[in-house]
Design a protein that fits this description.
Order of helices and strands of chain A: EHEEHEHEEEEHEEEH
Radius of gyration of chain B: 16 Å
CATH topology of chain A: Rossmann fold
Largest sheet of chain B: 3 strands, antiparallel
Number of strands of chain B: 3
Radius of gyration of chain A: 16 Å
Number of strands of chain A: 11
CATH topology of chain B: Mth169, Chain: A
Strand order of the largest sheet of chain A: 2-1-3-4-11-10-9-6-7
Strand content of chain A: 15-25%
CATH architecture of chain A: 3-Layer(aba) Sandwich
Largest interface: A-B, 19 and 11 residues
Largest sheet of chain A: 9 strands, mixed
Number of domains of chain B: 1
CATH class of chain B: Alpha Beta
Oligomer: heterodimer
Order of helices and strands of chain B: EHEHE
Chain lengths: 233, 81
């Protein structure tokens, strides 16, 4: 079934700006991406959903706080509750946290500066749907570009996340003040993941620093979407 | 009714904006310490009964205006518009 392309929805909010990059990257990795407008609560049949980066609603109030009320987000929540894989990248991560689909919150960077650079990450767990093509302990180089990427969880929540193995990616050199250098987390069920780095910008060796490590994450997602789409076939 | 909602970063939460403001004030020669920057929301609620209005604004805070993980809030209500 590997020659069959799974459909993956990329939700477009007003202010998303990495939606097309995400779709292009997914397409190059064997998926059939479709851009889905946030105002449409009727989600087509897909194998996975990506919430892309950007500045939905101008990041007003708190990043992601307003986008979570989009009609499409209700469909995303239902899809996630049914076990469907959902990946939130940067602003998508913020939306998932504000919407309660992921624990914690993203705050303005400790430095108050926008950071835009390639960063080394450590894969903490490779047995979650989004990282199956990686190995635990593997070092990935993926770019970040954000002003509000400082992950925060209070002591109780942090201990809980640690115990449950929900911290899946960490920065090797903390660029934004995130607690415990957290770069990516999954929900308790393991089917929703959010990360601040942009895997879709590290897929093509001709773009950026030449790292293609982002493909490992997105291909893991495509694998999972394929399994879900064609499990019955 | 008029409602004023004051949203603050919770104590102990790092507030980089407050820190930047404090540093700037110090730079200007002011003797200040512990600056924290929050947010103020003024709005009018349709409800005319104070209890009902307060309950409504509480829900607004829980659902949108504040994130309980990092922010606390205070609500002030006043008659008229």
């Amino acid at each position: 079934m590997t020659d069959t392309k799974p459909r993956i929805a990329v939700v477009v909010f007003p202010g998303s700006n990495d939606d097309r990059d995400a779709a292009l990257a997914l397409e190059s990795l064997g998926a059939d991406p479709l851009l889905h407008w946030h105002g449409d609560g009727d989600l087509p049949d897909v194998g996975a959903i990506v919430l892309p980066g950007g500045f939905s609603y101008g990041d007003y109030l708190r990043a992601g706080a307003i986008a979570r009320f989009s009609p499409a987000m209700k469909a995303v929540a239902d899809f996630a509750a049914d076990g469907g894989p959902v990946l939130g990248i940067c602003n998508g991560f913020q939306v998932l946290c504000e919407g309660g689909l992921l624990p914690g919150v993203l705050r303005p960077n400790e430095s108050l500066s926008f950071v835009c650079e390639d960063v080394p990450l450590r894969v903490e767990r490779a047995d979650v749907a989004f990282l199956t093509r990686c190995e635990a302990g593997q070092r990935l180089t993926i770019p970040i570009k954000h002003g509000e990427g400082c992950y925060f969880a209070d002591d109780e929540l942090l201990a809980q996340l640690e115990d449950a193995g929900q911290i899946v990616l960490r920065y090797e050199d903390n660029p934004n003040g995130s607690i415990d250098s957290i770069a990516g987390v999954v929900n308790a069920q393991g089917n929703v993941m959010g990360l601040m780095p942009h895997p879709e910008h590290a897929v093509d060796p001709l773009i950026g620093s030449g790292s293609t490590d982002g493909a490992l994450i997105l291909e893991s997602l495509v694998d999972r979407a394929r399994e879900r789409s064609f499990a019955a076939a | 009714m008029k409602a004023t909602i004051l949203v603050r970063p919770k104590p102990g939460i790092l507030d980089p904006q407050g820190k930047a403001v404090e540093d700037s004030l110090k730079h200007l020669g002011f003797g200040v310490d512990g600056a924290r920057v929050g947010r103020l929301v003024d709005l009018e609620v349709d409800a005319t009964d104070p209890d009902q209005a307060r309950a409504e604004v509480e829900r607004m805070c829980a659902e949108l205006l504040a994130n309980p993980l990092i922010e606390s809030y205070e609500i002030e209500l006043a008659e008229g518009s």
